[in-house]
Specification:
Phosphorylase is an important allosteric enzyme in carbohydrate metabolism. Enzymes from different sources differ in their regulatory mechanisms and in their natural substrates. However, all known phosphorylases share catalytic and structural properties. InterPro entries: Glycg_phsphrylas, Glyco_trans_35, Pyridoxal_P_attach_site. Keywords: Carbohydrate metabolism, Glycosyltransferase, Pyridoxal phosphate, Transferase. This is Alpha-1,4 glucan phosphorylase. Helix content is about 50%, strand content about 15%. By secondary structure, it is of the alpha/beta class. It folds into 3 domains: about 1-60 and about 85-110, no CATH class; about 65-80 and about 115-360 and about 420-455, Rossmann fold, CATH 3.40.50.2000; about 530-765 and about 780-785, Rossmann fold (3-Layer(aba) Sandwich), CATH 3.40.50. Strands 1, 4, 7, 8, 11, 12, 13, 14, 18 and 19 form a 10-stranded mixed sheet that branches. Strands 22-21-20-23-24-25 form a 6-stranded parallel sheet, with helices on both faces. It has a 3-stranded antiparallel sheet with strand order 15-17-16. It binds ligand TH1. Ligand TH1 binds near residues 267, 426 and 645.
């Protein structure tokens, strides 16, 4: 039985004090919040250790089929609250600490965000890490232990400045355990020759390779109140003692250390750098060598490895898992190519997260050959066999579009699809687009591989942890069963028309808005009226996400208020939180514009607090936990067809915000869940967007010239309305008018403005508004990642 079952307040206090003695040689009353956090985290680790070890032993003993989720990004944020909650000791620990004069929240604040991810893709991986043990599935994570996470964003004179995120303390991360015992070697560079053996087989012989040591750091992933503990394994690089002579100078050593030094700060686009390719191979090779070795210990035939092991390729970054498993099976375990291929394709599965063409990963074959020569050979052979298999059976054009090597480039999505048995999109519309458009040739070849798995969220973090006041109200209204079974939120449906309950939810929202307003006051000195609509857009800055459309609406409101000093509008505060990839020029210009517009508006007394704009610096998971519960309106306004799913949309919904959305990604499924009356939809749908693509008839300049109100808004970018943005304003104006507005902001503008006006009217009727907000909360349970991952586990991996 789990240790935590026997814990008492007294025992926790005693253990906590002991831990402080042991780690820091101090008493509780002398300790800083940092020291207390570390002591508590270590204590939690001790409590969990037996379950963690038992879980591992059971998998070996019972030979359970296990899934490994390979991802170049994980974005857990802070772990203390999640771990306490999942262990079922949150309240007990909080009370115990309170008894000795310690506020748990101070310890929570002391933890650093673990931000080894850019945005939705990494955060989804972390939600899955929470959900896998929660549903009792043997599913482990595999990734890289970056020394620096996603850059820390500072705003200086309105511009984004990037600072390194040195998240690891000198002792590392308290949640991890270094396992030098399980280190493996990874080989890169050099030459490979195929030397014929007596048997007639060809054997690869390596020359001048560089050997890296991959050292794993394990982090426990605790299931929700079920004693199940899984593992997230992150790899760090070291120089193996045996090969020290290969790295004689300090510069040589640094180049190696660089491999796990930084996360690539690019969301949905990629810098084609060899370091990234090495990162990908390093993670894949270290992970697979370990997995195959553990399977080998079972003494079962290698050709049946798919019966015990599933490997998931999260976006294409780990796609080298396909040729690497082939290498291990063929070169090291001497399987026939065909047997190895048959099992490899059954082991592997792949999720596609975007259809943006600039995000589809391709590598120069020359670079590939230089860095991973054996993998290059194997990919060449996979490609050859693929072409051979389909030649004469389908149009040559289909083969030309789907083969892995085209024009001396290696197409990683093609490798992932050909090398696996499952390809999934992350929302219904996205999967449809894959099938009908982006991957239609593959669908012709392998219709059975395609399936949808709509994203989900680890609801515990986004409700119980992030929104304690709403949680307490839910307990009062529908009982606390929803905390373990999120579908019980549906019970709230019975109270949608109850004016007292509506008022209670209104008050909870206002309290959360006050919490956010206090933070803004403290960090930026801006006073915010909490009776205003809190209208929030937080996500990576990208042209397709259309933060600029939001900005255009704000400019319009500003112009209205300036035109008519007596005008009364429903007061609004617009919040933005967004990091731009450091090399993404346009996105950085949008950040500058937002900040200058905010300055202009916030300092104009004549607007009488009816309009405020706040750019929240350094948006990250912890800030999301503060912002999302305070939102009245959730902005999900991407050009239809471009946002594969979105996941913050689900978090906002769960916290009772109304979604203002295009029919894109998972917004469509949110609409299906709450009904048309409880979401605000605007703009072109995917068919309207695609019609423009086929007809080539979009003309933003025409719209601009024929709509004076819109023209005035667009001209505000260049006519001096927004101070200090001469350069950025022109860049934006050009994108919208000279370059024909790639993301159709102008076409969607009028409908967006109209729906925003509708929201302003609606908000005046608090009861109706709250009823709609409650409808959203009630139906948010269907977006739990527990259910999403259960579908992966059953339908793709076969581990349940
Ligand atoms: C995001 C998608 O843009 C988003 O719609 C989706 O909800 C999320 O993944 C989770 O499925 C993506 N992030 C990345 C990051 C990189 C490359 C492609 C994508 S797609 C580095």
């Amino acid at each position: 039985m789990a240790i935590v079952m026997q814990l008492t307040k007294e025992k926790i206090i005693q253990d906590f004090k002991m831990q402080l003695h042991e780690d820091f040689m101090i008493q509780n009353d002398e300790a800083t919040a940092d020291e207390r956090f570390i002591a508590l985290a270590k204590l939690v680790k001790c409590y969990v250790m037996p379950d963690w070890l038992r879980g591992r032993d059971e998998i070996v003993k019972e030979q359970k089929k296990t899934a490994y989720y390979f991802s170049i990004e994980f974005l857990p944020g802070k772990m203390l609250q999640t771990n306490l909650l999942n262990l079922g000791i949150y309240d007990l620990v909080q009370e115990a600490l309170r008894e000795i004069g310690v506020d748990l929240m101070d310890l929570v604040d002391a933890e650093r965000d673990m931000a080894l991810g850019n945005g939705g893709l990494g955060r989804l991986a972390s939600c899955f890490m929470d959900s896998l043990p929660t549903i009792g599935a043997p599913g482990f994570g595999n990734g890289i232990r970056y020394k620096y996470g996603l850059f820390k964003q500072k705003i200086v004179n309105g511009y984004q400045v990037e600072l390194p995120d040195a998240w690891l303390s000198s002792d590392g991360n308290v949640w991890e355990t270094k396992k030098p015992h399980s280190a493996v070697d990874v080989k890169i560079y050099g030459n490979v020759y195929l030397v014929p053996q007596e048997s007639g087989d060809l054997k690869p012989v390596y020359e001048n390779v560089k050997t890296l040591r991959a050292v794993p750091y394990d982090m426990m992933q605790i299931g929700f109140k079920n004693d199940v503990v899984n593992n997230l394994r992150l790899w760090d690089v070291e120089i193996p003692e045996k090969y020290e002579l290969d790295y004689p100078t300090l510069a040589d050593r640094r180049r190696i250390e660089d491999i796990t030094s930084v996360l690539y700060p690019d969301d949905a686009t990629r810098e084609g750098q060899s370091l990234r390719l090495i990162q990908e191979y390093f993670m894949v090779s270290a992970g697979l060598q370990t997995i195959v070795a553990s399977y080998a210990k079972m003494g079962l035939p290698m050709a049946k490895i798919h019966e015990k092991i599933a490997v998931h390729i999260n976006d294409t970054h780990p796609a080298m898992a396909v040729p690497e498993l082939m290498r291990i099976l063929v070169d090291e375990y001497e399987l026939d190519w065909d047997d190895a291929w048959a099992t490899t394709t059954q082991v592997m599965s792949y999720t596609n997260h975007t259809i943006l063409s600039e995000a589809l990963e391709k590598w120069d074959a020359g670079l590939f050959k230089e860095i991973v020569p054996r993998i290059h050979q194997i990919v060449g052979e996979i490609d050859r066999q693929f072409v051979k298999t389909w030649a004469g059976k389908v149009d040559t054009a289909v083969i030309d579009h789907t083969r892995i090597i085209q024009n001396n480039q290696i197409h990683m999505a093609n490798l992932s699809i050909i090398g696996g048995h499952s390809v999934n999109g992350v929302a219904k519309l996205h999967t449809e687009l894959l099938i009908e458009d982006v991957l239609k040739d593959f669908y012709l070849l392998y219709p059975e591989k395609f399936n949808n798995k709509t994203n989900g969220i680890a609801q515990r973090r986004w409700s119980q942890i992030a929104n304690p006041s709403m949680s307490a109200l839910l307990d009062k209204q529908i009982g606390d069963g929803w905390r373990s079974n999120i579908h019980e939120l549906l019970k709230l449906e019975d109270f949608l028309e109850d004016a007292t309950v509506q008022l209670d939810f209104y008050q909870v929202k206002q309290a959360n808005k006050q919490r956010l307003a206090d933070y803004v006051k403290k960090t930026q000195g801006i006073d915010l009226p909490i009776h205003a609509i809190f209208d929030v857009q937080v996500k990576r800055l990208h042209a397709y996400k259309r933060q600029l459309l939001n900005v255009m609406h704000i400019i319009k409101l500003y112009q209205d208020l300036k035109d008519n000093a007596a005008l009364e509008i429903t007061p609004r505060v617009f919040f933005f939180g967004a990091k731009a990839a450091p090399g993404y020029h346009f996105a950085k210009s949008v950040i500058k514009i937002i900040n200058e517009l905010a300055n202009l508006i916030n300092n104009d007394a004549r607007l009488r607090d009816q309009l405020k704009v706040v750019f929240l610096e350094n948006y990250n998971v912890s800030l999301a936990e503060l912002i999302i519960p305070a939102a009245d309106v959730s902005e999900q306004i991407s050009t239809a067809g471009k946002e594969a799913s979105g996941t913050s949309n689900m978090k906002f919904m769960m916290n009772g915000a109304l979604t203002l959305a295009t029919l894109d990604g998972a917004n469509i499924e949110i609409k299906d869940a709450v009904g048309e009356d409880n979401i605000v939809i605007f703009g072109m749908d995917k068919d309207a967007v695609y019609a423009h693509y086929t007809r080539h008839d979009y003309n933003s300049r025409y719209i601009y010239e024929t709509n004076p109100r819109l023209k005035r808004v667009v001209d505000a970018f260049i006519d001096g309305t927004i101070p200090n943005t001469h350069y950025e304003g022109h860049e934006i104006w050009d994108a919208l008018i000279s370059y024909n507005d790639e993301y159709f902001l102008l076409e969607d503008f009028e409908d967006y403005v109209a729906k925003q006006a509708y929201i302003s009217e609606l908000y005046k009727d608090k009861n109706t508004w709250q009823s709609k907000a409650m409808k959203n909360i009630a139906n948010s349970g269907r977006f739990t990642s527990d259910d999403t991952i259960e579908l992966y586990a059953r339908e793709i991996w076969g581990i349940l």
